[in-house]
Q: What sequence folds into this?
């Protein structure tokens, strides 16, 4: 069985590794996004899937647009029996979907039809979902609308961030793919249509999604911080500059720690600093920031920052 694998970030690497390590399948090429500038020096950096593929001696294609006729022709020339995608980052055109005799399947990081789109893992954490999972699905022209083959559930705990969930779900996705690969090879994999009435969407994150709203509940602030960690990070403003919040202590069910004078403060006000971190007023109580990153600096414990910056009671973040 000749397979073309399409994926880009670290999430996709375990699925590619699984396909390479199993017998009876040959990965004839890997398709991934072009190298992009990264870091302060904006150095051109290959995506994780490309780096891994080259280590394993695989042919790598990096079309800027998968819809371009020359990109479709390049994949067609490989004559794949099956195309497997995992967080590739582009919607495949009909010309590619119709190429392989066994179809195109996707390892998607949610329990479809919930969280269709490009940021299902981050948004499930931001939303405070108690669980998420992976869906192995046949691809269609719509956005994650294809028939489902199988699912696996993965719980989300208060200790989880998007980073830990990416690791858990990428491993679960690779296992699910291997489990169903024989049924994909012989054409007997099941097809369960999605119920579109239950669909929710997880579009890619924007700068507005990263900004903290201190008038929200403590639980919502906590969820947003860990849903954006360790990638871009949630942010607020301090003294007119971006002030990233990298860690927040899980809030109590009821904030009994609010003193009377604290209750009078507006959301976003620093109530206390030092000790465990920086306590900030929220819409229904307070949260304690445990790790922060001032503009142009590295992340550090919030208590250390507060001592050095002499962060005073009444300072307003926002």
A:
């Amino acid at each position: 069985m000749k397979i073309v694998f399409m994926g880009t970030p670290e999430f996709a690497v375990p699925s590619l590794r699984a396909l390479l390590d199993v017998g009876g399948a040959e990965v004839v090429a890997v398709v991934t996004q072009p190298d992009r500038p990264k870091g302060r020096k904006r150095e051109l950096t290959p995506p994780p899937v490309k780096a891994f593929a080259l280590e394993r001696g695989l042919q790598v294609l990096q079309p800027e647009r998968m819809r371009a006729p020359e990109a479709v022709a390049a994949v067609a020339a490989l004559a794949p029996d099956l195309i497997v995608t995992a967080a590739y980052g582009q919607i495949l055109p009909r010309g590619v979907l119709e190429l392989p005799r066994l179809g195109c399947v996707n390892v998607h990081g949610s329990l479809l039809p919930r969280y269709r789109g490009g940021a299902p893992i981050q948004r499930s954490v931001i939303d405070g979902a108690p669980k998420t999972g992976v869906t192995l699905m046949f691809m269609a022209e719509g956005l994650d609308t294809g028939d489902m083959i199988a699912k696996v559930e993965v719980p989300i705990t208060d200790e989880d961030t998007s980073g830990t969930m990416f690791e858990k779900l990428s491993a679960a996705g690779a296992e699910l793919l291997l489990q169903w690969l024989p049924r994909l090879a012989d054409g007997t994999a099941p097809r369960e249509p999605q119920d579109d009435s239950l669909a929710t969407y997880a579009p890619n994150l924007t700068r507005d999604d990263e900004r903290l709203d201190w008038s929200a509940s403590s639980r919502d602030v906590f969820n947003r911080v860990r849903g954006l960690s360790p990638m871009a990070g949630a942010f607020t403003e301090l003294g007119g500059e971006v002030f990233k919040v990298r860690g927040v202590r899980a809030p109590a069910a009821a904030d009994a720690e609010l003193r009377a004078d604290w209750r009078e403060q507006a959301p976003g006000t620093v109530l206390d600093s030092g000790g465990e971190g920086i306590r900030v007023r929220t819409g229904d109580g307070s949260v304690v920031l445990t790790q922060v990153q001032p503009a142009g600096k590295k992340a550090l414990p919030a208590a250390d920052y507060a001592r050095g910056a002499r962060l005073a009671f009444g300072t307003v973040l926002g």
Observations:
- The CA atoms of residues 180 and 189 lie 7 Å apart.
- The chain has two domains: 2-198, 207-309.
- The first strand starts at residue 2 and ends at 7.
- Residues 2-198 form a domain with the Rossmann fold fold (CATH 3.40.50.170).
